[in-house]
């Protein structure tokens, strides 16, 4: 091990000790959130992307791998149980549960972006650009372990790639206010939780999706087909549904559906 690597790991350990260990009190058990989830891996097709194309791969739970034509990779809600089979360049995290953040992120990750301020002084503020990807956050509140409100305890993350804007809503616990919508800006693709209990209830999530007005809506955080199907039954009169056979989809501004569409990727 080189001296530089040792110093990098020492610095990372210090960050984790002071910041990322704090969310333990905000955790609650979610069904299926077990260490065995670490074995859940999906093959990724390495098809070259054209300019302005983006590949989204549903790794599982709330984790997606987002890849750009320039080779930049980001993992959402990066954690110690469900991880992509490649090391991302950027990792975003939320602290609501241990399956949404990592105590030991891979030291090779260039940018680790917690959706909360580890110092506890307020909201997190991120706006980073790496290659052809820009990532920024919009803070939200969460319920703490005791049921109180943890103000600015989480974030929605926006990924801007070429002409596409992708919003990952994270562990959203409440409806979005006008200020949230203004901060998000135009959203082309939204990744949203549909469990309806650990996050915002399903009727509330429908209202969020109506307000966001994304052309592509990809559900996540549903644990099993029953929960997902309950959400789809609620939304069936609002938007068409496309079910894909593989966990990844390649999109660009030019290939977005003409009408807002829910795209279901296999996984849970």
Describe the structure.
The chain is α/β, with parallel strands linked by helices and 268 residues long. It is built from four helices and 14 strands. A hairpin with a 2-residue loop joins strand 1 and strand 2 (63-68). Mean pLDDT is 85; it is low at 1-19, 21-29 and 31-42. It holds the Pfam family Lactamase_B_3. It comes from Bosea vestrisii. This is MBL fold metallo-hydrolase.
Task: List key phrases describing it.
single chain, 268 residues, alpha/beta, Metallo-beta-lactamase, Chain A, eight-stranded mixed β-sheet, six-stranded mixed β-sheet, 14 strands, 29% strand, globular, disordered N terminus, signal, MBL fold metallo-hydrolase, RibonucZ/Hydroxyglut_hydro
Q: What is the CATH class?
A: Alpha Beta
Structural class: alpha/beta
- Let me know the number of strands: 14
Give the strand order of the largest sheet, numbering strands 1, 2, ... along the chain: 6-7-8-9-10-11-14-12
| Main sheet characteristics | 8 strands, mixed
State the order of secondary-structure elements, H for helix, E for strand: HEEEEEEEEEHEHEHEEE
Regions with pLDDT < 50 over 5+ consecutive residues?
1-19, 21-29, 31-42
């Amino acid at each position: 091990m080189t001296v530089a690597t040792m110093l990098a790991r020492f610095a990372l350990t210090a960050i984790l000790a002071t910041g990322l260990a704090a969310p333990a009190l905000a955790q609650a058990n979610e069904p299926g959130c077990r260490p065995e989830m670490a074995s859940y891996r999906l093959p990724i097709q390495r098809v070259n992307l054209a300019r302005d194309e983006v590949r989204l791969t549903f790794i599982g739970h709330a984790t997606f791998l987002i890849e750009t034509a320039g080779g930049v990779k980001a993992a959402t809600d990066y954690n110690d149980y469900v991880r992509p089979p490649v090391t991302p360049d950027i990792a975003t995290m939320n602290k609501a549960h241990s399956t949404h953040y990592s105590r030991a992120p891979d030291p090779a990750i260039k940018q680790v972006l917690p959706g909360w301020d580890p110092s506890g002084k307020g909201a997190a503020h991120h706006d980073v650009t790496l290659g052809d990807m820009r990532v920024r956050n919009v803070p939200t509140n969460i319920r703490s372990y005791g049921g109180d409100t943890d103000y600015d305890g989480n974030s929605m993350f926006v990924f801007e790639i070429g002409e596409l804007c992708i919003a990952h809503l994270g562990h959203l616990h409440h409806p979005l206010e006008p200020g949230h919508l203004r901060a998000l800006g135009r959203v082309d693709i939204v990744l949203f939780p549909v469990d309806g209990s650990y996050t915002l209830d399903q009727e509330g999530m429908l209202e969020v999706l109506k307000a966001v007005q994304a052309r592509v809506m990809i559900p996540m955080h549903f644990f099993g087909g029953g929960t997902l199907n309950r959400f789809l039954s609620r939304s069936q009169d609002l938007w068409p549904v496309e079910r894909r056979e593989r966990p990844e989809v390649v999109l660009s501004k030019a290939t977005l559906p003409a009408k807002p569409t829910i795209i279901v990727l296999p996984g849970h």
